[in-house]
Amino acid sequence: MRVFGGICLLMAASVLAGCSSTSRPDRSVTTGSIPRLSKPVESMTAPELASAADSIGKSYERNPKDRNVGMTYANVLMMTGRNAQALAVMQQVAIANPSDREVLAALGKAQAAAGQLEKALDTIGRAQTPDRPDWRLYSAEGAVLDQLGRSNEARSRYRMALDIKPNEPTILSNLGMSYVLGGDLRTAETYLKSASQQPGADSRVRQNLALVIGLQGRFQEAEQVARQELNPQQADANVAYLRSMMSQQNSWKQLASKDKASPDNGTN
């Protein structure tokens, strides 16, 4: 069962059809060599994810050089927390497709998920081309920079991504969560509300918004947001996570005190 898992930066780096990233992260892929997924990966329960990993894994075993199968399999593995295995899969796919931008982007995401952040930056940088910049790669680069504590650089990348893809909800969500990491909860909420109102915003964006609202002490409002578009089991898990966050008074009060102390709570 998937819950918030803490700060959720949407790594739009593996350009699949369908955290990955294509035009919309984690969508089901329908190419002929990949088993059809019954629903978007982000809305699957743990048993459904395990079943998807098993069926796609069999396709990968038959042809480990297939880029689409490999990227999809790595994405599902990361959704189940099997980051080391996902990285191994993407390394094999990258060997077979060394100049494929989408494969390099997916490899960068897998490296970041496995904690190899500097390598992920290098890989994503190699995937980017100045004459044809990809907003997904800028957003993915920003997510890695945020994990490295380089928030100013991260926000610069998110804004570069927004210049190419205005109002893209995954970028706005990442920008909002960047401000959460910096302790500016009010600015974070502004971006996350904007993200949640965009067409195509998925449940992860709304769960990030619920988390930020809850961290500010407005738990009833946060619970209402957390229960949107999720089945009861997933919603209960996310609400339980919210309650655990709220019970850690020191953690969220420190964020709140940083927020109040911030000299500029604007969105610039």
Automatic annotation (TrEMBL):
Keywords on this record? Signal, TPR repeat
Which SUPFAM superfamilies does this one have? TPR-like (SSF48452)
What ranges does the record give for the region Disordered, renumbered to this chain? 21-43
Enumerate the TPR repeat regions by residue range.
135-168
> What start and end residues bound the annotated signal peptide?
1-17
Under Gene Ontology molecular function, one entry of this record is: identical protein binding
Which SMART domains does the entry link to? Answer: TPR (SM00028)
**Which residue stretches does the UniProt record annotate as biased composition, category Polar residues?**
21-33
Is-annotated flag, keyword Signal? yes
Official protein name in the record: Tetratricopeptide repeat protein
Organism, scientific name: Ciceribacter sichuanensis
